[in-house]
Each structure stands twice: as C-alpha cells, then as structure tokens.
Amino acid sequence: MADNANNTKRVAITKGDRIKVWWRSTFIQGSWNYERMQNGGWAFSLVPVLKRLYTTKEDRAAALKRHLEFFNTHPYLASPILGVTMALEEERANGAPIDDVAIQGVKVGMMGPLAGIGDPVFWFTVKPIIGALAASMAIAGNIMGPIIYFLAWNAIRMAFMWYTQEFGYKAGSKITDDLSGGLLQEITKGATILGMFILGALVNRWVSVKFTPIVATVPQSKGAYIDWAHLPSGAAGIRTALEQQAQGRTLSADKVMTLQDNLDTLIPGLAALLLTLFCMWLLKKKVSPIIIILGLFVVGVVLHVLHLM
Amino acid sequence: MQLNFLQIVLVVGVSFLAGMEGILDEFHFHQPIIACTLIGLATGNLLPCLILGGKLEMIALGWANIGAAVAPDAALASVASAIILVLGGQGTAGVNSAIAIAIPLAVAGLLLTTVVRTLATAIVHLMDRSAEEGNFRMIDIWQIVAIIMQGLRIAIPGAMILAVGADRVRALLALMPQWLTDGLGIGGGMVVAVGYAMVINMMATREVWPFFAIGFVLATVKEITLIGLGAIGISLALIYLALSKQGGGASSNGGGASNTGDPVGDIIDNY
C-alpha cells in the first residue's frame, strides 16, 4: 500500500471489518435477481467496510450506488474480488485518485475468469467427490455420511473464502496480474483432470443398469460346485460346505448366466457407460435434463414389467 | 405416522433452511444428504431418511446452476420426499417411491425459484432507493427480506404437505403396486447418469478424456476406495501439469518456482 502523505487522519479497515465482510459474503446470493444478479448481496457484504471508510451521507450514498451495479460470479470466488475492492475503497477514502470506473473495471474484469475457476473446482470436483463418498456411507445407513459431508464442505468453503479474501485485500489491484497468468489456468486444468477421473469412477460404480434375462444355464463339472448329496452329516457337513464355498465352489450344479454377467465379463460397467454417453448426447441435443430423468423412470418401470431388468 | 407440534415446527424449520440454501449454496442445508437426514432426525425416522438422502444425493451430485442447463431444484425434492417418506410410515421400504415422487417436485421447485428471483428484482430497486439516502440499515433489511423469501419458497410447500396429512399420503402410496415401486427403483439407479452427463458435458475436452477412461477402469477394482481413487486422481493431475509444463518448449526450462524440489518431476525430466 502506498504510504501517502495523508498522515493526518488515515482511515483503515480493521480485521474485525474484514471478518464481518467474510461472514456477510455467505449471503451474497440472497437477493439474486434477473436484473443485476448478485448486486444486492455484494453491497450487503461491503456494508461494514463502507461504514468504516465513509462518514458523510453523500459519500455513503455514492459508495452504495456504485456497489449496486451488476455483479455475478461463483459465490465463493466473490471473496478475492471483495478483498481487492476493499483495498481499492480504502485507498480511495484516503484520497487516492481511484474513480468509479476503475473499481467497476476491477470487479467486472475479475468476475468472469474467477467464475471459470469456481465451477470446475467446487461444483465438478470437490462436490462430486465429497458427495459420492458421503452418499455411499449414507446409503449403507452410516450417519457419518452427512456429518462428514457437512463438516468437510464447510471447512473447505469457509477457509477458502477467508484466505482468498485476505489475499485479495493484501494484493490489492495487483492480484489481476497474478490471476490472469498461468496459475489460474493450471488450477482449472488440474481440477478438470481430477474431476473427469472421478467421474469415470463414479459412472462405473454408481450408475446401476442390470439386465436380468438368463442367457444360459451351464451344467458345471464335478468339483466346481458343492456336492450336497455327499457331505458328512451334521455340523461336520455344514463345515465342509462352508469350506468348499470359501474355496470358490458354487452352490448349485448349474451355473446361471444372466445377460448382465455376460456383459460384465466383457467390460464391467459398459451399460452404465453407454447410458451416460447417451444422456450426454441428449443433453447436447438440448433435451431438458428433467425430461431425461422422467424418461429413465418410465424406461425402468417398463423394462421391469417386461422382466428385462 | 402422525407428527406432534414440535416435530412439525422442526420440519418446517429445516424446510426454511433448505430454501435459503437453495439460493445461497453455502452451508448446503439444501443438499439431500443433509436436508433428508435432518428431517429424519426431527421426526425420529433417521435411518430411512438417511438412506433416502444418500440415494437422492447420488442423483443430485451433478446438479449445479451453471450455463444454459437448468438443474432441477434439490431443495424442494429432498424436503418434500423426506416428509412424504415419514408420513407414509413405510420405513426403508418406502425410499424408492419417495425418490420417484421427489423428481417431479424438483421440477415444480424450479418454477418457484423463477418466481422468487423475479420478486427479488423489486427488492433490489428498493435497495437502490435506500442507497440514495446512504441508509445502510435498510440495505441490510432488504437483503434479509430477500433471504426470508427464499426460505419460504420451500417452507410453505413443506407445510402444505404436512397439512395434507399422513392418512392421505399413506393412501396415495398404498395405491402404488409392487411392480411400480420396483421399477422406479431401477429407474432411480439409471437416473444417476443424467447428473454425471451434465457435469461431463461442462468439463470434457479432448485433452481430459483419457483421465475419464482411467477412472472408469480403475473403479472396477473394488478394493480401491473412493478416497484412494481421489489420491490417484490428484496425483495424475499433478503429474500431467508438471509434465506439460516441462514439455512446453525449451524456453520454459527451469521455469516456475513450483517446480523446484520435485524429485519425481526431475527423474521424469532426466529420461
């Protein structure tokens, strides 16, 4: 920060103000509207700082008005922009020649690229990973699922918002140079790679498509199944049976192969993959996701009634 | 089951939180895994609601409001289906039919969102007027009013389902034959693909498709947990970034402070 000659009465933003802004920015989307999107929440977030920096009614009115302009970015990535804006407002209140256009320029210049990093990192990487982990626990009836989701998500989010806001405040307007460089693109690319990798795994593990028709009933050779007729009697028989099962013997003499078993020996999860690709194609053809979802329910019911699934 | 007064208040409270978060997207009270579990906790139906939340979360993993694709509304879907599950009194057996009911409600939720976001435009104009007077207090109040509106968006429908009452919800659920609920369960298993497809469509480029393939194949190894897969994925991303930086022309040789002290990168570089 420039050490100007303005020693007499330099107004400064306190850490308390910054904590207040950080907390208020949690509600930045509260008045999201079709006209200027996050503008109300943005002004709401900056209120503690504007209150500190400006004392006359005219200054306050002007400050609020310039922060009620159009604004929209990823809700968490608004934090570094808030930080930079605080720094600029502080300089301006202390007499630096920073006009409305400059402040608006910084906001608009940062919100686009930062939304571009927030979506892949938070919505497509962190959320699917934590969400899938927690959801698989919850489906198994484990209460730790939602608890882990809530704690992990909010710890990551709150820490991210605080540190990027502080970073923005300290870097001031210089941050635009840092972020427009390679770092931003690298983080986005890294998140995209991780996200695609995890999505591949999720498609295989969690999209469930099972075809039930029996394609073959194969009689097995002796020794591949448990020969129930020739077991020792009593507890010894149960023991032998369990031992044989542990060795990998099947329970019945005939091996039943469903269509799904056949597909699985080829490529496990192939049907799930094809279904996902089909959904992607439909979405690209501008079919509404809601139509696809309802359609899949109908398909599920119809195929079940026909005993195909 | 019949709910007592305190339980009704708690359920409406959770609905309100879910409605707020549906727009704020910060604490994630609107995510099925949280909202359904909280409703289960409030009504003493923890286990069925927990499972419902998990299954709905799997479906909703890819739902995010970005770009042109409008995602269904997770808040109304989770709140309404959890309430119906509780009122129906079928326990874990009712989870699949609750999910099937949730999806059309997620669509209805979208309409309500549009209405509230349009109303918020009027609120922002009221903020403009307060700004003219430099009135900070009124800015705060209008912001809070807008958030309350979003909360009511889910709290009111939630209360309406509660008002319909357990008997009528149960009668409705009893009308559903076994083949229908089983079929809906099978459909629910496939619907998960839609969310993933939405996300893949947003991210996929020629460059990152191989990573999808690696993830898909590795997932068949059942011994690798999701956390293990996450570790592999992070490693792959770091390796790829490091390699592409070093391979990107001789001019970038030794460039970037982030490269120093990276033994793996050095070994690969020496080959």
UniProtKB/TrEMBL annotation, chain A:
Pfam families xrefs: EIID-AGA
GO terms for cellular component: plasma membrane
Protein name: Mannose-specific PTS system component IID
Keywords (A to Z) from UniProt: Membrane, Transmembrane, Transmembrane helix
Annotated GO biological process: phosphoenolpyruvate-dependent sugar phosphotransferase system
Organism field: Schleiferilactobacillus perolens DSM 12744
Signal sequence, start to end: none
UniProt keyword Transcription regulation, yes or no: no
InterPro entries cross-referenced by the UniProt entry: GatZ_KbaZ_carbometab, PTS_IID_man
The keyword Transmembrane helix is annotated on this UniProt entry: yes
Domain of life, per lineage: Bacteria
From TrEMBL, chain B:
Alphabetical GO biological process terms: phosphoenolpyruvate-dependent sugar phosphotransferase system
InterPro entries assigned to the protein according to its UniProt record, in alphabetical order: GatZ_KbaZ_carbometab, PTS_IIC_man
Keywords, in A-Z order: Cell membrane, Membrane, Phosphotransferase system, Sugar transport, Transmembrane, Transmembrane helix, Transport
Subcellular location: Cell membrane
Entry superkingdom: Bacteria
UniProt keyword Cell division present: no
Major place of residence: membrane
GO annotations of cellular component type: plasma membrane
Protein source organism: Schleiferilactobacillus perolens DSM 12744
Name this protein carries in UniProt: PTS system mannose-specific transporter subunit IIC
Transmembrane segments: 32-54, 66-87, 99-120, 141-164, 184-204
